[in-house]
Amino acid sequence: MNVVLDGLSPLLDPTVLVCLLAGLLVGTLVGAFPGVTGSMAVALAAGFTLTLEPVQGLAVLLTIYVGANYGDRIPSILVNTPGTPAAIATTLDGYPLAKQGKAGFALVASSLVTTGGILVSWPSSSSRPAPSRSSHSSSGPPRCSPSSCSA
After folding, report:
1. Is the pTM value of this prediction over 0.90?
2. Residue in 116, 20, 110 with CA at minimum distance from that of residue 63
3. Is there a domain that residue 71 lies in?
């Protein structure tokens, strides 16, 4: 448990917290533009984070990605225009709620479900054991026949 606390302690630095908030704001704004995906936003922001410390840069890039994945639900709920393919299902439930005057409820529900998914997937993906060499075939290098290796 001490290793986990040592790993999370840099997140309490005030500059890292500012980077987290800035990345979340930028990611949500970028995600609200239809057609801009989270990975595209991270690729565009990667050059700007090269001057930051490693923890700060990774915090910015991670929160831009998470914010963009939430932000693409905003136009799909409010105007029935999914910004990315991942937000198509949100239009099926979110836009009818917005037409009933419950847009705020739909946005909050989408936010809570997104946060819940992140909180559930993070421990399960970080507690997975690393793949071992014994799980692979130990028959040697892969072999190919002349018909499968010809290009």
Report:
1. no
2. 20
3. yes
The alpha-helical segments, DSSP class H, found in the chain are 2-8, 14-31, 38-45, 54-71, 73-78, 88-99, 103-126, 146-149
Is residue 5 situated within a structural domain?
Answer: no
Q: What is the DSSP letter of 127?
A: S
Which amino acid is it at 13? Answer: D
Q: Residue type for 103, please?
A: A
Which residue reads 């997975």 in tokens? 128
Residue 125 CA to residue 10 CA, distance in Å, equals 21
How many domains would you assign to the chain?
1
pLDDT digits (tens, 9 = 90+) for 42-89: 999 999 999 999 999 999 999 999 999 889 899 999 999 988 888 898
111 and 125 in contact (C-beta within 8 Å)? Answer: no
Name the packing angle between helices 14-31 and 54-71 (round to 10°): 30
Range of the domain at 97: 12-126
